Protein backbone atom coordinates (compact mmCIF):
# COMPACT_ATOMS: atom_id res chain seq x y z
CA UNK A 1 0.00 0.00 0.00
CA UNK A 2 1.43 3.40 -0.97
CA UNK A 3 1.89 6.22 1.53
CA UNK A 4 -0.71 8.35 -0.26
CA UNK A 5 -3.29 5.54 -0.13
CA UNK A 6 -2.70 4.96 3.58
CA UNK A 7 -3.01 8.70 4.23
CA UNK A 8 -6.32 8.81 2.34
CA UNK A 9 -7.73 5.82 4.22
CA UNK A 10 -6.85 7.15 7.69
CA UNK A 11 -9.41 10.01 7.67
CA UNK A 12 -12.04 7.63 6.28
CA UNK A 13 -11.45 5.17 9.12
CA UNK A 14 -11.50 7.97 11.69
CA UNK A 15 -14.80 9.22 10.28
CA UNK A 16 -16.26 5.68 10.30
CA UNK A 17 -15.15 5.16 13.90
CA UNK A 18 -16.80 8.43 14.92
CA UNK A 19 -20.08 7.45 13.26
CA UNK A 20 -20.15 4.04 14.92
CA UNK A 21 -19.41 5.60 18.32
CA UNK A 22 -22.51 7.70 17.76
CA UNK A 23 -24.53 4.60 16.88
CA UNK A 24 -23.25 2.75 19.95
CA UNK A 25 -24.12 5.61 22.30
CA UNK A 26 -27.62 5.91 20.86
CA UNK A 27 -28.58 2.21 20.78
CA UNK A 28 -26.51 0.09 23.15
CA UNK A 29 -27.23 1.75 26.56
CA UNK A 30 -30.98 1.48 25.92
CA UNK A 31 -30.69 -2.19 24.91
CA UNK A 32 -28.60 -2.85 28.04
CA UNK A 33 -31.35 -1.31 30.16
CA UNK A 34 -33.93 -3.55 28.48
CA UNK A 35 -31.83 -6.67 29.01
CA UNK A 36 -31.11 -5.88 32.68
CA UNK A 37 -34.81 -6.19 33.45
CA UNK A 38 -35.25 -9.09 31.03
CA UNK A 39 -32.61 -11.06 32.86
CA UNK A 40 -33.70 -9.93 36.30
CA UNK A 41 -37.31 -10.98 35.69
CA UNK A 42 -36.31 -14.44 34.47
CA UNK A 43 -33.81 -15.24 37.25
CA UNK A 44 -35.21 -13.43 40.31
CA UNK A 45 -36.96 -16.71 41.03
CA UNK A 46 -33.56 -17.77 42.45
CA UNK A 47 -34.06 -15.28 45.27
CA UNK A 48 -37.77 -15.95 45.61
CA UNK A 49 -36.78 -19.58 46.25
CA UNK A 50 -35.24 -18.63 49.60
CA UNK A 51 -38.78 -17.94 50.96
CA UNK A 52 -41.14 -19.33 48.32
CA UNK A 53 -39.97 -22.94 48.53
CA UNK A 54 -41.10 -23.20 52.16
CA UNK A 55 -44.36 -21.31 51.52
CA UNK A 56 -45.32 -23.52 48.56
CA UNK A 57 -43.65 -26.74 49.74
CA UNK A 58 -41.28 -26.99 46.76
CA UNK A 59 -38.51 -29.59 46.76
CA UNK A 60 -35.12 -28.80 45.20
CA UNK A 61 -36.06 -30.82 42.11
CA UNK A 62 -39.49 -29.12 41.83
CA UNK A 63 -37.85 -25.69 41.98
CA UNK A 64 -35.29 -26.75 39.37
CA UNK A 65 -38.06 -28.03 37.10
CA UNK A 66 -40.06 -24.83 37.44
CA UNK A 67 -37.00 -22.65 36.85
CA UNK A 68 -36.20 -24.67 33.74
CA UNK A 69 -39.74 -24.70 32.29
CA UNK A 70 -39.13 -21.08 31.29
CA UNK A 71 -36.91 -22.42 28.53
CA UNK A 72 -39.48 -24.84 27.14
CA UNK A 73 -41.79 -21.90 26.39
CA UNK A 74 -38.75 -20.01 25.15
CA UNK A 75 -37.80 -22.88 22.83
CA UNK A 76 -41.25 -23.30 21.31
CA UNK A 77 -41.90 -19.63 20.54
CA UNK A 78 -38.46 -18.22 19.77
CA UNK A 79 -38.16 -18.90 16.03
CA UNK A 80 -41.66 -17.56 15.19
CA UNK A 81 -40.96 -14.55 17.41
CA UNK A 82 -37.73 -13.70 15.60
CA UNK A 83 -39.38 -14.06 12.20
CA UNK A 84 -42.13 -11.71 13.37
CA UNK A 85 -39.53 -9.19 14.50
CA UNK A 86 -37.99 -9.16 11.04
CA UNK A 87 -41.42 -8.87 9.44
CA UNK A 88 -43.02 -6.08 11.48
CA UNK A 89 -39.94 -4.28 12.83
CA UNK A 90 -37.80 -4.36 15.96
CA UNK A 91 -39.39 -1.35 17.63
CA UNK A 92 -42.93 -2.72 17.80
CA UNK A 93 -41.99 -6.33 18.45
CA UNK A 94 -39.42 -5.69 21.20
CA UNK A 95 -41.95 -3.39 22.91
CA UNK A 96 -44.58 -6.15 22.71
CA UNK A 97 -42.18 -8.69 24.20
CA UNK A 98 -41.25 -6.46 27.13
CA UNK A 99 -44.79 -5.45 28.05
CA UNK A 100 -46.01 -9.06 27.88
CA UNK A 101 -43.22 -10.49 30.02
CA UNK A 102 -43.66 -7.68 32.54
CA UNK A 103 -47.31 -8.60 33.00
CA UNK A 104 -46.54 -12.31 33.37
CA UNK A 105 -43.65 -11.68 35.76
CA UNK A 106 -45.87 -9.56 37.99
CA UNK A 107 -48.46 -12.34 38.05
CA UNK A 108 -45.99 -14.55 39.96
CA UNK A 109 -47.01 -12.75 43.14
CA UNK A 110 -50.28 -14.72 42.98
CA UNK A 111 -48.64 -18.18 42.75
CA UNK A 112 -50.19 -20.41 45.40
CA UNK A 113 -49.05 -23.90 44.49
CA UNK A 114 -46.55 -25.94 42.51
CA UNK A 115 -48.77 -26.24 39.43
CA UNK A 116 -49.22 -22.49 39.00
CA UNK A 117 -45.49 -22.02 39.49
CA UNK A 118 -44.88 -24.35 36.56
CA UNK A 119 -47.56 -22.72 34.37
CA UNK A 120 -46.31 -19.17 34.88
CA UNK A 121 -42.66 -20.12 34.32
CA UNK A 122 -43.66 -21.64 30.98
CA UNK A 123 -45.73 -18.56 30.05
CA UNK A 124 -42.88 -16.24 31.02
CA UNK A 125 -40.58 -18.09 28.64
CA UNK A 126 -43.17 -17.88 25.86
CA UNK A 127 -43.63 -14.14 26.50
CA UNK A 128 -39.92 -13.37 26.51
CA UNK A 129 -39.07 -15.62 23.54
CA UNK A 130 -37.39 -13.70 20.77
CA UNK A 131 -36.03 -10.80 22.82
CA UNK A 132 -32.40 -11.91 23.07
CA UNK A 133 -31.96 -13.31 19.53
CA UNK A 134 -34.03 -10.38 18.29
CA UNK A 135 -31.52 -7.94 19.75
CA UNK A 136 -28.63 -9.96 18.29
CA UNK A 137 -30.37 -9.78 14.89
CA UNK A 138 -31.01 -6.06 15.43
CA UNK A 139 -27.27 -5.53 16.02
CA UNK A 140 -26.56 -7.00 12.57
CA UNK A 141 -28.66 -4.14 11.11
CA UNK A 142 -26.24 -1.60 12.62
CA UNK A 143 -22.78 -3.13 13.09
CA UNK A 144 -20.44 -5.09 10.76
CA UNK A 145 -19.01 -8.35 12.09
CA UNK A 146 -15.61 -6.94 13.13
CA UNK A 147 -17.36 -4.44 15.44
CA UNK A 148 -19.98 -6.81 16.78
CA UNK A 149 -18.12 -8.75 19.52
CA UNK A 150 -17.47 -5.59 21.50
CA UNK A 151 -21.03 -4.35 21.02
CA UNK A 152 -22.58 -7.67 22.04
CA UNK A 153 -20.21 -7.83 25.03
CA UNK A 154 -21.44 -4.38 26.07
CA UNK A 155 -25.06 -5.50 25.61
CA UNK A 156 -24.49 -8.68 27.58
CA UNK A 157 -22.93 -6.67 30.38
CA UNK A 158 -26.58 -6.50 31.41
CA UNK A 159 -26.26 -10.04 32.82
CA UNK A 160 -23.62 -9.21 35.44
CA UNK A 161 -25.20 -5.76 35.96
CA UNK A 162 -28.50 -7.53 36.74
CA UNK A 163 -26.60 -9.69 39.23
CA UNK A 164 -24.64 -6.79 40.75
CA UNK A 165 -27.66 -4.58 41.34
CA UNK A 166 -30.53 -7.05 41.10
CA UNK A 167 -29.30 -9.53 43.72
CA UNK A 168 -28.95 -6.98 46.55
CA UNK A 169 -32.18 -5.29 45.38
CA UNK A 170 -34.08 -8.57 45.46
CA UNK A 171 -32.71 -9.39 48.90
CA UNK A 172 -33.59 -5.92 50.21
CA UNK A 173 -37.15 -6.01 48.82
CA UNK A 174 -37.78 -9.43 50.34
CA UNK A 175 -36.55 -8.25 53.75
CA UNK A 176 -38.01 -4.72 53.74
CA UNK A 177 -41.48 -5.50 52.38
CA UNK A 178 -42.06 -8.89 54.00
CA UNK A 179 -45.51 -8.94 55.63
CA UNK A 180 -46.67 -5.56 54.29
CA UNK A 181 -50.28 -5.61 53.08
CA UNK A 182 -50.34 -9.27 54.12
CA UNK A 183 -47.95 -10.26 51.32
CA UNK A 184 -44.71 -12.22 51.58
CA UNK A 185 -41.40 -10.63 50.61
CA UNK A 186 -41.11 -12.75 47.47
CA UNK A 187 -44.55 -11.56 46.29
CA UNK A 188 -43.48 -7.92 46.60
CA UNK A 189 -40.25 -8.69 44.75
CA UNK A 190 -42.07 -10.12 41.73
CA UNK A 191 -44.45 -7.15 41.61
CA UNK A 192 -41.92 -4.35 42.00
CA UNK A 193 -39.36 -5.85 39.60
CA UNK A 194 -41.99 -6.37 36.87
CA UNK A 195 -43.10 -2.74 36.66
CA UNK A 196 -39.92 -1.37 34.96
CA UNK A 197 -40.21 -3.90 32.10
CA UNK A 198 -43.69 -2.61 31.25
CA UNK A 199 -42.62 1.04 31.39
CA UNK A 200 -39.48 0.50 29.30
CA UNK A 201 -41.53 -1.54 26.81
CA UNK A 202 -43.75 1.48 26.24
CA UNK A 203 -40.67 3.73 25.90
CA UNK A 204 -39.28 1.37 23.23
CA UNK A 205 -42.09 2.39 20.88
CA UNK A 206 -40.78 5.95 20.87
CA UNK A 207 -37.01 5.38 21.10
CA UNK A 208 -35.84 2.56 18.83
CA UNK A 209 -35.56 2.75 15.03
CA UNK A 210 -36.17 -0.29 12.84
CA UNK A 211 -33.05 0.32 10.75
CA UNK A 212 -30.39 2.73 9.55
CA UNK A 213 -32.55 4.59 7.01
CA UNK A 214 -35.21 5.42 9.60
CA UNK A 215 -32.74 6.96 12.07
CA UNK A 216 -33.43 10.69 12.16
CA UNK A 217 -30.44 11.19 14.48
CA UNK A 218 -28.05 10.20 11.66
CA UNK A 219 -27.28 12.45 8.69
CA UNK A 220 -27.54 11.04 5.16
CA UNK A 221 -23.74 10.94 4.98
CA UNK A 222 -23.55 9.02 8.26
CA UNK A 223 -26.18 6.56 7.06
CA UNK A 224 -24.14 5.95 3.90
CA UNK A 225 -21.04 5.22 6.00
CA UNK A 226 -22.88 2.67 8.17
CA UNK A 227 -24.51 0.97 5.17
CA UNK A 228 -21.19 0.80 3.28
CA UNK A 229 -19.53 -0.89 6.26
CA UNK A 230 -22.40 -3.37 6.51
CA UNK A 231 -22.24 -4.11 2.78
CA UNK A 232 -18.67 -5.42 3.14
CA UNK A 233 -20.02 -8.27 5.27
CA UNK A 234 -22.53 -9.57 2.73
CA UNK A 235 -20.01 -11.61 0.74
CA UNK A 236 -19.47 -13.86 3.79
CA UNK A 237 -23.10 -14.31 4.74
CA UNK A 238 -25.71 -16.85 3.77
CA UNK A 239 -28.75 -14.91 2.56
CA UNK A 240 -31.77 -17.07 2.01
CA UNK A 241 -35.11 -18.17 3.38
CA UNK A 242 -35.92 -19.38 6.87
CA UNK A 243 -35.24 -22.99 5.88
CA UNK A 244 -31.61 -22.12 5.11
CA UNK A 245 -31.19 -21.15 8.75
CA UNK A 246 -32.31 -24.66 9.77
CA UNK A 247 -30.36 -26.86 7.38
CA UNK A 248 -26.89 -25.29 7.58
CA UNK A 249 -24.65 -27.78 9.48
CA UNK A 250 -22.70 -24.89 10.98
CA UNK A 251 -25.90 -23.71 12.67
CA UNK A 252 -26.20 -27.03 14.54
CA UNK A 253 -22.55 -26.92 15.58
CA UNK A 254 -23.30 -23.48 16.99
CA UNK A 255 -26.25 -25.00 18.88
CA UNK A 256 -23.95 -27.52 20.56
CA UNK A 257 -21.39 -24.89 21.54
CA UNK A 258 -24.01 -22.52 22.91
CA UNK A 259 -25.78 -25.33 24.81
CA UNK A 260 -22.55 -26.09 26.68
CA UNK A 261 -22.02 -22.45 27.61
CA UNK A 262 -25.63 -21.90 28.70
CA UNK A 263 -25.40 -24.89 31.06
CA UNK A 264 -22.92 -22.92 33.14
CA UNK A 265 -24.61 -19.55 32.74
CA UNK A 266 -27.97 -20.54 34.20
CA UNK A 267 -26.41 -22.67 36.91
CA UNK A 268 -24.95 -19.42 38.21
CA UNK A 269 -27.99 -17.23 37.81
CA UNK A 270 -30.61 -19.65 39.19
CA UNK A 271 -28.53 -21.19 41.98
CA UNK A 272 -26.08 -18.47 43.04
CA UNK A 273 -28.17 -17.44 46.11
CA UNK A 274 -28.48 -21.11 47.12
CA UNK A 275 -24.74 -21.69 46.62
CA UNK A 276 -23.91 -18.68 48.82
CA UNK A 277 -26.46 -19.69 51.48
CA UNK A 278 -24.97 -23.20 51.61
CA UNK A 279 -21.67 -21.71 52.86
CA UNK A 280 -23.42 -20.67 56.07
CA UNK A 281 -24.90 -17.25 55.27
CA UNK A 282 -28.53 -16.81 56.41
CA UNK A 283 -29.45 -13.09 56.03
CA UNK A 284 -31.21 -12.52 52.68
CA UNK A 285 -29.71 -9.09 52.02
CA UNK A 286 -26.19 -10.35 52.82
CA UNK A 287 -26.73 -13.25 50.42
CA UNK A 288 -27.72 -10.68 47.79
CA UNK A 289 -24.61 -8.58 48.32
CA UNK A 290 -22.24 -11.57 48.27
CA UNK A 291 -24.00 -13.02 45.20
CA UNK A 292 -23.12 -9.81 43.34
CA UNK A 293 -19.35 -10.33 43.73
CA UNK A 294 -18.92 -12.99 40.98
CA UNK A 295 -20.90 -10.80 38.58
CA UNK A 296 -18.52 -7.89 39.18
CA UNK A 297 -15.66 -10.15 38.08
CA UNK A 298 -17.67 -11.21 35.03
CA UNK A 299 -18.42 -7.60 34.04
CA UNK A 300 -14.72 -6.79 33.86
CA UNK A 301 -13.71 -10.02 32.12
CA UNK A 302 -16.36 -10.02 29.39
CA UNK A 303 -15.55 -6.47 28.26
CA UNK A 304 -11.78 -7.04 28.31
CA UNK A 305 -12.14 -10.22 26.23
CA UNK A 306 -14.61 -8.51 23.86
CA UNK A 307 -12.24 -5.63 23.17
CA UNK A 308 -9.32 -8.00 22.67
CA UNK A 309 -11.28 -10.24 20.27
CA UNK A 310 -12.31 -7.32 18.05
CA UNK A 311 -8.85 -5.75 18.11
CA UNK A 312 -7.16 -8.99 17.05
CA UNK A 313 -10.08 -10.27 14.95
CA UNK A 314 -9.63 -13.63 16.64
CA UNK A 315 -12.47 -15.68 18.12
CA UNK A 316 -11.31 -19.26 18.72
CA UNK A 317 -8.94 -18.82 21.68
CA UNK A 318 -10.96 -15.89 23.00
CA UNK A 319 -13.76 -18.45 23.48
CA UNK A 320 -11.72 -21.48 24.52
CA UNK A 321 -9.82 -19.72 27.31
CA UNK A 322 -12.86 -18.33 29.19
CA UNK A 323 -14.78 -21.61 28.82
CA UNK A 324 -11.89 -23.45 30.46
CA UNK A 325 -11.74 -20.71 33.12
CA UNK A 326 -15.38 -21.47 33.88
CA UNK A 327 -14.66 -25.21 34.11
CA UNK A 328 -11.84 -24.60 36.59
CA UNK A 329 -14.04 -22.22 38.60
CA UNK A 330 -16.87 -24.75 38.99
CA UNK A 331 -14.41 -27.51 39.92
CA UNK A 332 -12.83 -25.34 42.62
CA UNK A 333 -16.26 -24.26 43.92
CA UNK A 334 -17.14 -27.92 44.37
CA UNK A 335 -13.99 -28.43 46.45
CA UNK A 336 -14.23 -25.21 48.49
CA UNK A 337 -17.92 -25.27 49.40
CA UNK A 338 -17.14 -25.16 53.14
CA UNK A 339 -15.66 -21.66 52.98
CA UNK A 340 -17.63 -18.54 52.00
CA UNK A 341 -14.50 -16.61 50.95
CA UNK A 342 -12.98 -19.43 48.89
CA UNK A 343 -16.36 -20.27 47.34
CA UNK A 344 -16.78 -16.65 46.21
CA UNK A 345 -13.31 -16.71 44.63
CA UNK A 346 -14.13 -19.91 42.75
CA UNK A 347 -17.59 -18.69 41.71
CA UNK A 348 -16.06 -15.39 40.54
CA UNK A 349 -13.65 -17.33 38.34
CA UNK A 350 -16.55 -19.43 37.02
CA UNK A 351 -18.73 -16.38 36.35
CA UNK A 352 -15.93 -14.48 34.63
CA UNK A 353 -15.36 -17.42 32.29
CA UNK A 354 -18.94 -18.49 31.61
CA UNK A 355 -20.44 -15.04 31.09
CA UNK A 356 -17.55 -14.01 28.82
CA UNK A 357 -18.32 -16.89 26.45
CA UNK A 358 -21.79 -15.76 25.41
CA UNK A 359 -21.05 -12.34 23.83
CA UNK A 360 -18.00 -13.68 22.04
CA UNK A 361 -19.97 -16.69 20.84
CA UNK A 362 -22.55 -14.59 18.98
CA UNK A 363 -19.91 -13.12 16.68
CA UNK A 364 -19.59 -16.63 15.15
CA UNK A 365 -23.08 -17.26 13.68
CA UNK A 366 -23.63 -13.59 12.76
CA UNK A 367 -20.46 -13.78 10.63
CA UNK A 368 -21.97 -16.31 8.20
CA UNK A 369 -25.74 -15.81 8.44
CA UNK A 370 -27.69 -12.97 6.86
CA UNK A 371 -31.24 -12.00 5.86
CA UNK A 372 -34.13 -14.30 6.77
CA UNK A 373 -31.60 -17.12 7.25
CA UNK A 374 -30.12 -15.05 10.07
CA UNK A 375 -33.53 -14.46 11.68
CA UNK A 376 -34.27 -18.19 11.67
CA UNK A 377 -30.72 -19.41 12.29
CA UNK A 378 -30.05 -17.14 15.26
CA UNK A 379 -33.39 -18.07 16.81
CA UNK A 380 -32.68 -21.80 16.30
CA UNK A 381 -29.26 -21.47 17.94
CA UNK A 382 -30.59 -19.48 20.86
CA UNK A 383 -33.66 -21.64 21.41
CA UNK A 384 -31.84 -25.00 21.18
CA UNK A 385 -28.90 -23.67 23.19
CA UNK A 386 -31.23 -22.30 25.83
CA UNK A 387 -32.73 -25.73 26.39
CA UNK A 388 -29.67 -26.00 28.62
CA UNK A 389 -31.50 -23.45 30.75
CA UNK A 390 -34.05 -26.21 31.37
CA UNK A 391 -31.51 -29.02 31.76
CA UNK A 392 -29.08 -27.15 34.03
CA UNK A 393 -31.32 -26.09 36.97
CA UNK A 394 -33.30 -29.36 36.88
CA UNK A 395 -30.08 -31.38 36.80
CA UNK A 396 -28.67 -29.45 39.76
CA UNK A 397 -31.89 -29.77 41.78
CA UNK A 398 -32.24 -33.48 41.09
CA UNK A 399 -28.62 -34.26 41.95
CA UNK A 400 -28.81 -32.13 45.10
CA UNK A 401 -31.94 -34.02 46.21
CA UNK A 402 -30.31 -37.36 45.41
CA UNK A 403 -26.86 -36.71 46.92
CA UNK A 404 -27.40 -33.82 49.36
CA UNK A 405 -24.33 -32.13 47.82
CA UNK A 406 -23.62 -29.43 45.23
CA UNK A 407 -20.24 -30.93 44.25
CA UNK A 408 -21.38 -33.49 41.65
CA UNK A 409 -23.53 -31.06 39.62
CA UNK A 410 -20.64 -28.59 39.60
CA UNK A 411 -18.33 -31.21 38.13
CA UNK A 412 -20.96 -31.92 35.46
CA UNK A 413 -21.07 -28.20 34.63
CA UNK A 414 -17.28 -28.12 34.36
CA UNK A 415 -17.36 -31.06 31.93
CA UNK A 416 -19.97 -29.28 29.80
CA UNK A 417 -17.71 -26.25 29.42
CA UNK A 418 -14.78 -28.45 28.41
CA UNK A 419 -16.95 -30.04 25.70
CA UNK A 420 -17.89 -26.54 24.49
CA UNK A 421 -14.23 -25.54 24.27
CA UNK A 422 -13.42 -28.64 22.22
CA UNK A 423 -16.35 -27.90 19.86
CA UNK A 424 -15.08 -24.35 19.31
CA UNK A 425 -11.70 -25.76 18.27
CA UNK A 426 -13.41 -27.74 15.48
CA UNK A 427 -14.83 -24.54 13.95
CA UNK A 428 -13.19 -23.34 10.74
CA UNK A 429 -10.86 -20.36 11.04
CA UNK A 430 -12.70 -18.41 8.34
CA UNK A 431 -15.80 -18.46 10.57
CA UNK A 432 -14.21 -17.62 13.91
CA UNK A 433 -11.56 -15.14 12.77
CA UNK A 434 -13.46 -12.48 10.91
TrEMBL record:
Keyword Endoplasmic reticulum: no
Domain Major facilitator superfamily (MFS) profile: 27-432
UniProt keyword Transport, yes or no: yes
Record membrane topology: Multi-pass membrane protein
InterPro entries registered for this protein in UniProt: MFS, MFS_dom, MFS_trans_sf
Pfam families for this protein: MFS_1
Localization, UniProt: Cell membrane
Coiled coil: none
Chief location category: membrane
Membrane-spanning intervals of the chain: 23-41, 61-81, 93-112, 118-139, 151-174, 186-208, 251-272, 284-305, 317-336, 342-362, 374-396, 408-427
UniProt keyword terms in alphabetical order: Membrane, Transmembrane, Transmembrane helix, Transport
CDD domains: MFS_ExuT_GudP_like
Name of the protein in question: MFS transporter
